[in-house]
Description:
By secondary structure, the protein is an all-alpha fold. The protein has 15 helices and no strands. It has two domains: about 1-210, Rhopdopsin 7-helix transmembrane proteins (Up-down Bundle), CATH 1.20.1070; about 240-350, Homeodomain-like (Arc Repressor Mutant, subunit A), CATH 1.10.10.60. Helix 7 packs antiparallel against helix 8 (about 190-210), helix 10 (about 260-270) packs across helix 11 and helix 12 (about 285-310) crosses helix 13 (about 315-320). The chain is elongated and about 85 Å long.
Amino acid sequence: MLYTTAAVLSLIASCYLLFRRANAIAPDITSPLRLRRWMAAFFASMTLSHMWYLPSVFLTSDDDILLCNHIGALLDCMTVFPLAIIVMPFMLQDRRRPLWPVAVMMTPLVIGMAVCIVNQNDTLLPMLRIYILLLGFGLIIYMVREVRRYGRWLRDNYADLEHKEVWQSFLVLAIIVLAFGIYASGVGGLAYEYAVQMLAIVLVCYLLWRVETLSDLSISQPLPVDEETVTSEEQASYDNIGLLLQHHCIDTQLYLQHDLSVSQLAKAIGTNRSYLSQYFSRQGTTYNAYINDLRINHFIRLYREAVDNQRLFTTKQLAHSSGYRSYSTFTLAFKQRMGKNVTAWISELAG
């Protein structure tokens, strides 16, 4: 029953990602189409893998069971394993990464399993399992580096990090590497079978949720304010970007727009993303810190006005009015900016 559940669940997830364009889990999120397709292919490969191994239950000959398992492992090395490796970096949207290294990594496994099938023995299996473990360690090192780089890219380009959390990419890595480790151990027995299927079910559910809640960062939403024409005298340079930011971002309160990206801000002030990023770097700050400073100052201003006018309010309402869709994002930004959480800051003012 557990085996069948994993197979059916992966099939449903694959069909859902392929044929349903709307987002059922997070309707306000548009997930990356390319990632959805590759994830659907990964789920389909899991389904086919389960379907292949299922008839082995009815085999009685040891030689037939061995051959069935070897062919299944070969198919896994050609489909499930490479697709699992591909979907990990595809969740990082800072750049497109080449796919040929995955083929290079899988070639030794494919050749090794082909040799096992031809010779009809398990001689090479210990070496192949060691290779899978080494491959897992290599993926850990690579993905830790890439996820850290991705985190820096997010902070430099986006003010809102809802549904883009870097730690979740680490969680995907941990689950997939754990699957590699269990697969490579090959200890056998009922406990091993239960562990593999339980992990497959967890992996399908989590990856489906992750794809649905991951925003497509390549989509730029239209600016909600009227874009003023920037005259030739206003064309951005390092000397007047500060004035342009004051005029087109601070005065118009453009920083209150949810999911405002550095590219959108650059367009609004009449420059390009590279110039604007270099400007922030020269100022010793980042785009994320710049926008959050403006929003926190806006929150403080709203709070003081509400207190002075004796209006009823909640900090969550004020945070949303200050450009934050997520209250948790606001609390983190507030603590980084003010050196204390919002509750302690309010208590200090009240005292």
